[in-house]
Amino acid sequence: MKMSREQRKIINAKKEVFDGYCIPWDEDIEHKFVVRCAKCPNTDPEVILDIITHDIIVAKIEHKKPTYYLNLLRKHYPRADAIYEDVIIDICGMDGFESLRRNKCIEFCGTLYGRKLYAI
User: Fold this and answer.
1) CB within 8 Å of 13: residues ≥ 6 apart
2) Residue 96's closest CA among 74, 65, 55?
3) What are the pLDDT digits (tens) for 33-52?
4) Smaller CB count within 10 Å for the chain: N or C?
């Protein structure tokens, strides 16, 4: 399907929002947008695009950097060289734990009494 001039303006405006948040633009968004506009011609195209892109933008905004979680750990345990996995998850949540591990801010260093220990 071909995109109208109005739809192209809306897409370009949303691309600027994505650029502002450093979110890579996915061409699949444009395809979903055109298809939904064709299915619901009486709906405002801006609303349709907002619905399609909402979750992507919110995920980016809510995503915290690993340094945020690292500072949180240091605040709770300023002198610790290693912290148990369950304690890290209690403080940072599972997303924070995964972010720290993925970015190599923490590293598995052993098991003590069945609990995993991570070096900071």
Assistant:
1) none
2) 65
3) 999 999 999 999 999 999 99
4) N
